[in-house]
Every structure is written in structure tokens, then in C-alpha cells.
Amino acid sequence: MSFFKKLFSSEKKETLDKGLEKSKTTFFSKLSKAVAGKSKVDDAVLDDLEEILVASDVGVATTLKVIERIENRVAQDKYLGTDELNQILREEIAALLSETHSGEATEFEIPKQNKPYVLMVVGVNGVGKTTTIGKLAYQFKKAGHNVVLGAADTFRAAAIDQLQIWADRVGVPIVRQEMGSDPASVAFDTLQSAVAQNADVVIIDTAGRLHNKINLMNELAKVKRVMQKVVADAPHDVLLVLDGSTGQNAFEQAKQFTAATEVTSLAVTKLDGTAKGGVVIGISDQFQIPVKYIGVGEGIEDLQVFNKYEFVDSFFK
Questions:
Q1: pTM score
Q2: What are the residue boundaries of the SRP54-type proteins GTP-binding domain, all occurrences included (predicted)?
């Protein structure tokens, strides 16, 4: 397929290759054992492949889709050698991702019609939400945008302090109140401040409590309503941050948050050092929500805009 011949940014691609190394190595060591001594893709190979994909946290429903696509290729081509399986997997998974990711951004861009562009970030504590916000702020600022952060996760003093540290590190203003303050009030103040400063991007952190979904739903709805008093169509993006290293637990979090609020994009973090990189494929497919960013390292530059072709190329290289 011609899109795999695309030239990728070498530095970014090296980071992605390294970040997915463990997932790729684990996947292919299992695949090699499954096809050892076999010359063609038969039912036994497909059964083994199904187990491998599920074990890589692609998820059962998405795995069955992939297997069905490969079965169709086998029926169509009459004979499919095991040496061709890697390329077929690349093509079919890229095609699957294309159903959710059409014309996605390749850089840290914001729509020109939205100013300020308001991004509300949701996710449970511990998934790398605050770190993702900090890295996003860095990347947007690096792209030439004026950024303002809002510390609306007021239920944990640590969350406010963490965001302050990132604001100082990146060199962007932050709007914060005391712990226990009304999150909607913080969001309102943040947007007012951003408008006054003629900011390009506003990133609002929110609390990550899932133990009471109704409270979370009501709180996020209130934050949205109050923001719209300042910017009529805010938020322009609701970004759910998921920890890729938790595998199936990330699926459950996605399920809970998409039930609590309208999630429009995903960031999957901590993909480096885990063998669960397949979770990106499964979550994107099952929830039909585009993965916008992936975290493939601890460095400030290691949050990348997700590109389906680069991802598949690195995973199946």
C-alpha cells in the first residue's frame, strides 16, 4: 500500500518506534511461534492470531473484525502465505483505523474559526492527565499559540499544584483557586482571562472521580454551561486521557466517561514500556472516537499527534 511509503519525520518516528518497541517485540515473538513451520494461513494460524491480538489488548470485538477481514483476504486470494501475514495485518488494521481517523491533523494545529480554542480534559487520576495537559501546552506554545491553563480539578490540592508546576515550566499563565472551589467558577474565570489576553488556546483540567458517575456527569455539564456564558460554543474538544499500560481497564474508563459526557477525542498515554500498545487500535475502533494524541515517552516532546499510518508502520515494522 502506497501510504506506507510516506516519509515520516525521522526524529518523531524514532521516538514512536522506540515507544512501541515492547508491544511490537511481544506481538511478533508470539506471531513467529504461531506460524513456525507453517507455509500458509489456515484456520489454526487464524485461531492463534486471534489469541495474540486479544492478548495484545486489541479487544475481542476489534480482534474478530480483523480476523474476518483476513479470512476474506484468504478466500479472495485463495492462497495466503504466512510470510505475507505481516503486510496483510498492516493493511487491514490501517483500513480499520481509517474508518475513525479520516483527515486527522499531523501537527499541533487548532481550527482557525475558534478563538480561543477551548479544550476540556477529562480522565481519572493517575492516567497522566496533568502531564498530558502540560505537554499539550508546551506543543501549542511551540507552534506559536498563546495558551492559558485552567485548574478546575479543585478536589485535589496536588492536581492544582501539579498544573502550576507545568505552567511555570512551559511559561504559560494559569488560572487557579483554592482547593474545594467550584470547578465551574474556575472554568468561567479562565475563559474570561483568556478572552481578555486574546489567547489562542485554553486547556481546562477537570476532576477525575468515577465512583459516582451521576455527580461527574452533572459537574461536567455545569462546567460546559458556565463556559458557554463566555465562549458560546465551548468546549470545542473534550479530550479523554487514558493510560495505555492498563489495557482492558482503559476500555472500561472509556466506557464510563463516554456515558458521563460527550467525549470528542482521546489521548492514550504511557505506551512506552508496555506490551499493551494494541489498546490504541481497539479503543479507537470500539468507541468510534479518534485518538488525537499518544504518549510514547517521558520527555516533554514525547506527546505526539496520532497518525494512523505512522502508528501501524511502527507497530508492524
A1: 0.90
A2: 290-303
**Secondary structure of 126-167 in the HEC alphabet?**
CCCHHHHHHHHHHHHHHCCCCEEEEECCCCCHHHHHHHHHHH
Q: What share of the chain is helix, strand, coil (3-state, %, to 5)?
A: 55, 15, 35
Binding-site residues for GTP, in ranges, read 123-130, 205-209, 269-272
Give the Å distances, CA to CA, from 196 to 192, 193, 199: 6, 5, 8
Binding site residue list = 123-130, 205-209, 269-272
pLDDT tens column, 5-42: 444 556 778 888 888 888 888 888 888 888 888 888 88
The cell for 39 is 507455509
At residue 295, φ and ψ (nearest 5 deg) are -100, 115
Question: Cell for 230?
Answer: 463566555
Per-residue b or e along 28-46, where b marks 16 or more CB atoms closer than 10 Å to that residue's CB: eebbeebbeeeeebeeebb
**Whether 22 contacts 112, CB under 8 Å:** no
Amino acid occupying residue 179: M
Residue 116 preceded by cis peptide, ω within 30: yes
- Quickly list DSSP for 94-113: HHHHHTT-SS--SSS---TT
Instruction: Determine how β-strand 265-269 pairs with β-strand 237-243.
Output: parallel
